[in-house]
Structure formats: C-alpha cells, structure tokens
C-alpha cells in the first residue's frame, strides 16, 4: 500500500494529540494519547467514571496537558510538517501521523513522557 505524504499547514493546536489544519480539517495524532487540557469534556465527572474501565481512561493532568500541547507546538515549528492520513474517527477527525524532518510527532511526545501509546 503506497504511503501518501502531504505537507500540512497547522492553524492551531488544541492539545498534545489534536490539531486543526489551515483548511479547517481536524487531525488526531494516531497511536498516541496525550493528557487533557483544562475544560476537556473527558474530565467531567460522569465521563471520567464512564471511561475509568476503558482501554484509554481520561488522563486529566491539566498541567501535563498544557506541557504536551506546548511541546507539540514547538516541535511542529522546527521544519516542514508532513501528514500521513490513515482514517477518520467516529468524531469525523482525520487520524494521521505528523512528522517534521522525518521525526514522528507522537513518538517525540512519548519520549518526553508527554503522551503514551494508544491502547
């Protein structure tokens, strides 16, 4: 299966695993889970309880979530961002790998302890 890479224009970074492209497309980094940022619906009491026994429970460390978002933002400004789209999730977001200079953004965040592998 051929790999389709494209250059991505990043408009904004929501958190450590979700960005918005300049054309409005929402992209979720595939294969990682980053901590939530303040205000995340996943951290509301009912959602936390519902997700507590899931494969990926809510990770509601807001300070770490902010660090993760900031690290992703810094990483994505170090060169040309390439996107490798994989699929769409149930929320309509594109699931993709983002890389800069051949380095995967998700693996970078995991190496810093600012994300974990998606289970």
Descriptors:
two-stranded antiparallel sheet, about 30% strand, about 120 residues, Staphylococal_nuclease_OB-fold, alpha+beta, SNase_OB-fold_sf, Thermonuclease family protein
Describe the structure.
There is one protein chain. With 119 residues, this protein is an alpha+beta fold. A hairpin with a 5-residue loop joins strand 6 and strand 7 (94-100). It has helices at 45-51, 62-76, 105-111, and strands at 5-7, 10-15, 18-21, 26-29, 32-33, 81-88, 94-100, 103-104, 116-117. Residues 4-119 form the TNase-like domain. This is Thermonuclease family protein. InterPro entries: SNase_OB-fold_sf, Staphylococal_nuclease_OB-fold.
Task: Itemize the secondary structure elements and their pairings.
Elements (H helix, E strand, L loop, with lengths): L4 E3 L2 E6 L2 E4 L4 E4 L2 E2 L11 H7 L10 H15 L4 E8 L5 E7 L2 E2 H7 L4 E2 L2
Parallel strand pairs: 4-7
Antiparallel strand pairs: 1-6, 2-3, 3-4, 5-9, 6-7, 7-8
